[in-house]
Design a protein that fits this description.
Layout (H helix, E strand, L loop, with lengths): L8 E5 L4 H12 L3 E6 L2 H13 L3 E6 L6 H14 L4 E4 L17 H30 L2 E6 L12 H21 L4 E8 L5 H6 L2 H8 L10 H12 L10 E4 L8 H6 L2 H5 L1
Parallel strand pairs: 1-2, 1-4, 2-3, 4-5, 5-6, 6-7
Helix pairs in contact: 1-8, 3-4, 4-5
Bound molecules: NADP nicotinamide-adenine-dinucleotide phosphate.
The site of NADP nicotinamide-adenine-dinucleotide phosphate has 27 residues, from α1 and α6.
């Protein structure tokens, strides 16, 4: 089988490490030319150099989530250099669990900051890529990285969950409104994944609680997100749009009661 993304031009935001890096690396290995869209140009260059050393095609573009004009400039720069954009992966996202609390302790300013910060890139970069590249070329795939926290409410991080839910709905709107241009948009919702963000913010005991009702009882690997992202970027998924796709080990199928009872069948007898 040939490479699944041969000839495609892709942008992956926040791709120095974690899920973004895994997706960008997988895209390179499947033959795409990948633009690593990063704020830290030094670590970004290391990622690009490693991709080129493996025989891949990669380049670097500046992207700072908190500097909104860079969302559009990034798209314009790639378009000026490569003349098209086939895939945009809006991977940037997250929140500070100290400031982004449960509803009782939340305040409007912090809540809105979290929501805005997470949704801004998805809106701005997608809008620029769609209007400047994908509509004229009559094709494109937008892949937004959501979270299971956007489909199943969390006990804390009110802003983060609402931001990811907004991203899901925005993606469906894009899919509906831009399908006529052969543009697709899907959301990939990771479950709890072994990245620096998780190591930093979720102590092992909390991770274990999250995994309590999760049928595949372990953290995900970033490469497991990349597998679906390759499919969504490739021509194999030409008929897949507006979808809400979860790579979460079944985290969302299980009532918390199973976590508490363990083997419910035994508990009943
Ligand atoms: N990990 C999980 O369990 C999990 C679960 C559900 C959803 N997600 C979602 O998956 C996506 C990736 O998360 P991750 O866990 O892979 O994160 P991560 O490992 O913490 O990596 C964060 C990435 O974001 C970049 N970044 C941080 N702040 C930035 C800014 N202001 N501007 C530009 N880039 C910035 C970092 O770049 P530097 O190298 O410059 O710091 C790094 O490349 C996010 O949308 C997150 O919400 C993750």
């Amino acid at each position: 089988m040939g490479k699944r993304l041969e000839g495609k031009i892709a942008i992956v935001t926040a791709s120095t490490r974690g899920i973004g890096r895994a997706i960008a690396d997988a895209y390179v290995d499947e033959g795409a030319k990948v633009w690593f869209a990063v704020r830290n140009l030094e670590t970004g260059k290391q990622a690009v150099d490693a991709a080129i050393a493996r025989g891949g095609k990669a380049d670097l573009v500046y992207f700072e989530a908190d500097d909104y004009p860079t969302h559009t400039k990034m798209v314009e720069e790639v378009l000026a250099k490569d003349g098209r954009i086939d895939i945009l992966v809006n991977n940037f996202g997250g929140s500070n669990p100290v400031l982004d609390t449960d509803f009782e302790h939340a305040n409007w300013e912090e809540y809105m900051k979290t929501v805005e910060r997470n949704v801004a890139t998805v809106f701005n970069a997608s809008h620029a890529a769609i209007t400047k590249a994908m509509i004229p070329q009559k094709s494109g795939s937008i892949i937004n990285i959501g979270s299971v926290a956007g489909v199943v409410p969390d006990v804390t991080q009110c802003g983060y969950g609402c931001a990811k839910a907004t991203i899901l709905y925005l993606t469906k709107q894009i899919a509906l409104q831009c399908g006529k241009y052969n543009i697709r948009a899907n959301v990939l919702h990771p479950g709890i994944t072994a990245t620096e963000a998780v190591r930093k913010h979720l102590p092992p005991a909390v991770q274990e609680q999250f995994l309590g009702g999760c049928p595949i009882h372990r953290l995900a690997e970033p490469t497991e997100m990349a597998s679906l992202a390759v499919y969504l970027g490739s021509d194999e998924s030409q008929y897949t749009t507006g979808q809400d796709m979860r790579v979460c080990g079944g985290f969302d199928v299980c009532s918390p009661i199973y976590a508490t009872f363990g083997n419910l069948k035994e508990a009943r007898t």
